[in-house]
Amino acid sequence: MAEKKRDIWNDDDGAGEAKRAEKRSGRLRRFAVFALALMAVLAVVLAAAYRDGTGFDALRRYLNYGGSGEERYRYESSSSNRFAALGDQLVVLSDNTLQLLNRDGGETWSTQVKMSAPALCQGGGRVAAYDVGGRTLYVLDQHGEVFHLETEEDETLISATLNGKGILTVTAQRPNAKGAVYAYSADMTRVVFDMTSGERFVTEARVSDDGSTLAAVRLGQQDGVFISSVVLYDLREAGEKTPFAEHSIPDGLALSTGQQGGRLVTVADTCVVSASCAGKAEASYDCGGAYLRSYSLGENFTALLLNRYRAGNVGRLVTLDAEGAELGSLEIHEEVRGLSAAGRYLAVLYTDRLVVYNESLQVYASLRGINGISQALMRTDGSALLIGTDSASQFLP
User: Which uninterrupted H or E stretch holds 218?
Assistant: First the structure.
């Protein structure tokens, strides 16, 4: 076998070094081109973000989903199905199953339930699934169950809310009372507020995002006139069950409350009332005699679908800021099948298309060919989940 030798005296070291230097230079040039292209893309994104705030959301969608909208969530078809978007996962609740589905087509968590009137609410990165008129409630995060409640046999659930920090508040019916409200600590280990109402019916309650107050919606009559009001309790005073503030809903039935910034916003069938954290009603948007057909109370704004008549599709789509001032208004002359507000976006599902608007009702994106889609769930990053009979897919603008 011949011996392999290297002649260190006759090797062309200068030429080899030149080639290596040329390769390094080529790599540096390619890296510089890539860096310049990346900077150009980021510049465009930052310019868009500075202009309307949507550029960062486009970047989030690209990083989260890679520009692909192929993910599909599959579930059993049921008329009782209820849906909620939880990050990039989908919560599906029916009368017999509660599921948390991931975008890879799998199941993150599930359990069997027995509910006659399933309902969902969400907030603070959590979703609560409960049975209206029943006794069962679950709270989920993106990993699965974090809390399970079974009420007493004579105590049935009316509603549940989760605030911006995921704090749970439950409204229930108790014997010999017109309602009960109790709220939990953020870690769900203890009850921090428990109140029984003997004067007026309580339909909903929620804890403020900073955890300092609890607002409860009460219904009743006074001098033969129906009244609807929001009362506030101080959670910083241990054992305190006397409201420190109250504001009425003028000539309206309070439907839902939420927090937008530092203000408490209540949607009623005739108006939207904006109150300070101290409980003082400071602004109100009057629906002007129009019929409230649908609404979506988002984190940053409120969307209302107001019909001119009880029947038909002639009306207006309106968005309001936290102080009840109009952000946008759009005349509607076609059927609207659903509204969903999240972040700075509003998804409106028409008969033949999905349109995503910004909070001023300027078109951000649209999609046709939505046969089989019954519901759209807006997400804070500007994407939407399209809900079908037995599967859901995502729409990436």
Answer: strand 213-222
